[in-house]
Every structure is written in C-alpha cells, then in structure tokens.
Amino acid sequence: MVQVIEWVNPGEDEIIWRYPNEVIKWGAQLIVHEYEVAVFMRDGKIYDVLGPGRHTLTTQNLPLLYKLVGGSNSPFKATVIFVSMKQFQGRYGGETQTRELAPVKYYGVYWFKVADPVLFITEVVGGQSLYDTADVTKFIRAYFNEGMMKHLSAYSIVDLFQNLDMVSTQVKVKLMEDFRRLGLELVDVKIEGVNTTDEWRQRLFWIMQTGNAQYVMQMDTAKQVAAELGKSEGAAIGTGMVVMPQLLQQPAQPAQPAQPYAGGGVPPAGYQQPAQPGAPAQQAGQEICPYCGKQIPAGARFCPYCGHEIKRCPNGHIVPEGAKFCPVCGAKIE
Amino acid sequence: MGKETSIVEKLELVIPGFHGYKKKELIREDDRLVRGKVADTLALARREMERALQRCAMVSCAQLVAIDNLRKKLMALESRVRHAEAGYRGYFDRVKFKEEELKRLIEYDAKMIELAEEILNEVKALNGQIANPQALGMAVLNLDDKLINFEEVLGKRMSFAAGE
Ligand SMILES: [Zn+2]
Ligand SMILES: [Zn+2]
Fold first, then answer.
1. At what angle do helices A238-249 and A222-230 cross, to 10 degrees?
2. Neighboring chain B residues of A259 at a CB cutoff of 8 Å
3. Of the four, A58, A126, A218, A254, which is 20 to 30 A from A225 by CA?
4. In what residue span(s) does the SPFH domain sit (chain A) (predicted)?
5. Residue B5 lies inside a defined structural domain of this protein
C-alpha cells in the first residue's frame, strides 16, 4: 500500500500538524492543500519544504533529505510538519503600566498568519519544541501580550485615552516587527478597550482640564488636586491657582501626539488633538470629554462618543465625578 | 495579428512560462502564472508599505492610520489575486477561448500587471515622503486611487474568468 501523507480536515484554529509516522518511504504520496506547506525536519533541522500539490516523494523533490540519508532508497526517518498559511484570529488582554506608572487594563483582537514557514518552524515550532497547535497558539498569544505590555508602557496615560487610534497603530507597527522575527505576519490589531483605576481617571481628568501634567502629578492623589484647586474661589493659592488660568488660555506645547516619551521624570501633557497643532486646548465651542478624551460640543450633558454623563459646576465648567469644587472657577458643587 | 500579439509578447516577457492561453490544457496554468506575477508585485508593494509604516510610526506622522488602512487594503487585494477565491467554474473550464474573448482576457491581464507596477511605484513614492506632510497626504490619496482602480480591473477580470 502506498503511504499517504496528508493533513485531513484541519480545524479552523489549527496552525500546524505533525504527521504521526516518522518513517517515510520513497514513493509516498504527499498531499499538500492550498494554504498549506509541508516541512521536512530531522533532529530539529529543516531539510526540504513542499508547497501545495500532490507530490510523489522522490529523490528529486527531497534532495536535501536524500543527501542526508546517504543516497539510499530505503525508508528514512523525518518529521513532516504541515503549516497552515491561513489567517488566524486571537484575543488578548492584560495589564500594564503607562510611563507614569498608571495601571491600565487593555483587551482586544489580533489577526496573524504565517509568512515564512521555515523561519516560523525554526523559531517557534522547533525552537520551542511545540509540536501541538494548542501549544503554538498559546506561545504566540503570550508573545503578543508581552510585546503589547512592553510597547504600551512607553506611552503616557493621556496618549492612551486621548489618542488611542494613533497609539494602537504605532504599537501595531512595533508588534509587526516582533512577529516578523518569528516568521509570522501580524495582519491587524484592534484595541477594543483600555481602562484604568478611578483614581487615575480623575487624575487624567485634571491633566486634560488644566493641561498641566506636571502639576497634577506632583499631587499624591487626584482628590488632593481637586482640593488644592478648589480651596478658595479664584484666589491665588500656591502655584496651582496662579498658573492654571493662564494655562487654560495659552497654547500648550506643539502637538506631538502619542510620541513615546524618551526622557525621565514626568512627561509633558501633550493632550491636544493632532488635527489642530498649536491650537488652544479648548477652542470656543469645543470641550473634551473627561472619560474618553474626545472633543464634545460645548455644554453637552452627555458625551456623544462614550455616553458618559458630563457633570458641571454652576458656571458650566466640566467637573469630574465626586469633585467638591470646580477646578476652573472654584465654585462649590452641590 | 497586431495589437494583441504585442500584448501577448509583452506578457511572455514579464511572465516566464506564459503560453497566452493558447493551449487548452495549460489555460489554468497560464492563469495561475499571471496571478502569481501580479500577487508578487503587490507583495513587494506591501513590504514597502510596511517600511513606510515603520518610518511613519517613528516620526509620529499624522497619516499613520491612513497608511495602515492602505496597507490592509493592499493585503486583501494580494490575497484575492493569489488565491483566486472566487474559483473558476466558467470560461476556464470551457474548451478554448474564442479570439474575441482571448483578446479581452489578455487585456485584463496586461492591465492588472500594469496597475500592480503602478501601485508599487506609488508606494515607493509614498515611502519617500514620510517627512513631508503635504506631499505625503497627496501620496496617500494617489495610492488610494490606484488601489481602487486595481480593484475594479481585478473584479472585472475575475468575473470574466468565472464566465459571468
Ligand atoms: Zn466620552
Ligand atoms: Zn466652574
């Protein structure tokens, strides 16, 4: 009977399959389906690779193995690994810290496929001795997550919440490079959500409202910021109140959206929308939602993007949840 | 003969092994060769696109998301060309092309190859303009045009090959 080597009915999530019989006969039928590649290995080393088609194994199409077995026509030993070239989807989720050490949770989806089966087998399958699809998939997910954590931690929390599109595209580009090293192609990444603690959300609010990350970060807690800013109605107390109103008027630093911060210490706020470089943080008729960071119509009671209720002081300024005083005018909040 | 002959000769030049659909039993093979050539060109463009994306991410250029969207579009096209997901049940299973049909198919092929090359050139131009926001914006628009153009020709060619 002719030996038939074929990956029969691969499952939708199966990325590799190892042919269980390691003894191969010359003349065996190798069936490689569209979107598949068959790789011949021995002792962890790759010899021959065959693409889609129905192949009769001969000395011609397995020249390297034939050479290895010393040109003999008797059955030889080899591991045949089928690699699927289809696109796969994976879900991820994890926790990391921003460059200010704010804790963030994130989750989403990514899509990938094998781009270079030889490199993939060398780096992942053979390199890690993972001959089972479940193990390979687990490895890839862990690798992805590790990269995600590392790259996200280079950003500030303001970038993450206000320029998520930009940040996620930049992170994706970096992850694409990481994946290429494994012979994989990262087709796309979607960050479906990022979240942080209440404390940091409030801090984020103050940073976005005042444009002064430095000042906000000097305070131990967001409550302290609120208290500092709300101590007296409009009176100058400490640097905070003197600096604040000016900051609200003047254009902040030129917009450099979502650029990983290279220096030490507390980064510049960089809270502007990339579309309007050098413009004041809050143009007439525009406000920033403290929950999702998007620009919302002035006076809005709900954010049209994230649906959050927008709390306001009696004078109409946006205030964070739980604030006792307005950060802009100092008015007491009922 | 005349015009279509010269197109065939051109195709034979850029696609080694191409028979111009003249042999019935090699029609599918010819089709595969043409698609392979086009997909390879698009793959080069994609690789160039990824380089552009990397450079763009490095300097935080404003077109990053737009460039990434074009990259995805390009990838989808490459895969459509390479694997011909539509599957051929029509013309390619028929006997032999009539003169008129053959002429049309070859024209589609030549157009696809031409557009794929243009896409590659456009991506190269884009990659050269990463530091120049104004020119980059134009390059993004130009490339988008080319991709739409290509998709149109590909669609026509595929439905023709499927016998529609
Ligand atoms: Zn919102
Ligand atoms: Zn107020």
1. 90
2. 60
3. A254
4. 16-204
5. no
